[in-house]
Amino acid sequence: MVAVKFNIDEMQNQRKPKIAITGMGVVSPLGIGIHGFSSGLWECRNTLRKLDLFETGIDSTPIVAQIDALPTLKKIPGYRYSRTDTLAIIAAEEALNRSCVNTKLFSDAGVIIASTVAGLTEIKPGLAKDPKQYYRQTGFAKLSTYQKGHLANVVSAKLGLKGPSLGISVACASGAMAIALGARMIQNGMVQRMLVGGSDALCQFTISGFNALQIFDFEPCRPFDIVRKGLNIGEGAAILVLENLESALSRKAPILGFLSGWGMTNDAYHATAPHKDGVGLAQSIELALCSAKISADDIDYVNAHGTGTDLNDIAEVNAYKKVFGSRKTCIPVSSTKSFFGHNLGAAGAIEAVVSLLCLHAGLIPPTLRLNTPINCDIVYWIKEKTLKKPVQRVLSVSAGFGGSNTSLIFERWNGETE
After folding, report:
1. Which residues are catalytic?
2. Distance CA 86, CA 371 (A)
3. What is the tens place of the pLDDT at every residue in 163-185?
4. Is 16-410 CATH 3.40.50.170?
């Protein structure tokens, strides 16, 4: 805790420009685009069903959230698109359109896109059987999409953005971390504007790996339920447009909210399991609260990581006990992975979109299929139906393999300029 105390003291003495969110785009099993996504969210639409996108090679067909009828995009010279690339491009184009962007003005914008899968969707069984023949036939052209940085590069090329282009891959905290790092680059004066988020497609390699870890639920998942059995994988992408408030106001951009605080930590504990006490996740939340200069009492809703696995959900609840234990009222918590599965590297970005929609609608989505929640006196579990409630600030938390934790705080814009 000493390291965290040092960071908090330093952050409290810093005055940084506010980070405005002026655009967002999303591709999800709930819908392609913000309108379809938000409609599905408030209707409490479940998208989890048996996988039929490809053969898995495992004994039981997993329950997933897959996107049907994905549009075919016009290619740009010199680039090949994987399914993950396509998701990212669609979300990025919507984000820029909603931001009312003058392309010339944004030509120096940077791009950070997170992924755990990237172009692994392009790998076929023939690679294992005969690598030389595979690459001679079609495989070599696909090679460029395998690297995580390809996502940011292809989005930059498609949209003509010539600022820094980065790929982030820290497991399931990747999407949230991309948002935090992009905001930090703006605060440090490296760039004025950033496109940030995450994208991940369903993939045979991923399905095989999670099945080997024995953390699938072969029924629709039940995050935070005492009889939870595991997670369901989903696919999707979400991109936010970040810029400093001065820039946003000068071009009369639509301000969807602020990213007012963030914190990033690592458990340094285990390759796959979270620390059971939730220490690292709690520290990331504390750092986010401090950077936003607010207390635990100021958070109106927590969009949880909430995977539905035994270890994650317990660790997360323990983190909430540490942070919100002295709060005056119970903290409302739900997991939207019960709607559209675990989107891996895109999860934190898609859940950032959920958080912003909550700010605007004054609504909070439930955790679907949550019947008997884990006992936690300081948590108000939202279940069964959407809760109508004024929302000024949302905390969105993400945790990943290797102990990566990222917490983001989104704040409603009320017309203030400072």
Report:
1. 172, 305, 342
2. 37
3. 999 999 898 999 999 999 999 99
4. no
